[in-house]
Amino acid sequence: LGNTDGAYDIGASGANRPRNLYLSNSISAADITTTGAGFFGGNVGIGTSAPSFESGAGMEIRYAAGLGAHLKLTDSASGAGGTNGFDLYAYNTAGYIENYESGSTVFRNNGGERMRIDASGNVGIGNSIASTFSANADNLVIGSGSGHNGMTIYSGNTSAGNIFFADSADNNEETRGGISYDHNTNQLRFRANDAN
To answer: Which residues contact 143 (CB under 8 A, 6 or more apart)?
Structure first.
């Protein structure tokens, strides 16, 4: 572990830096300690000695026991327990984004907020106040309240775009009511009681 040019390098410095860093569960926190910046010149593997990516470089976390590989982010407000903070993890064949806290999960782009999932599970696209709308229709709120806003259903030129109203996923209940536009015949259809 050496300190050159204000950064901490593991192994040789400069052009001879190693390509990969492998951290196993046998390494304690005292083995890698810095008070400045840490620099890794190649891939980083936690739980794997052969991190690999489709392109570029990065960090791979692997937990071979099958109970999930996690990247946990916490701060002084969230606490540091197993069910605190913000967690990105893979479990079996599914990928999860989980905020254990009672706050929102916010998606930002180009310097501003673009979408928010609040603690009630309501989604605001272009706004951060979905839960302030009618409780009968606040699961998804689209728009900023200023200028033009909207939603587009983009279908094939011989297919239909649909909005369905359902009270069950059984039999015909998933299409009990709806609005459809058939691009093949250029017809707009309204559906009630499972009939056009």
So the answer is: 125, 126, 127, 149, 150
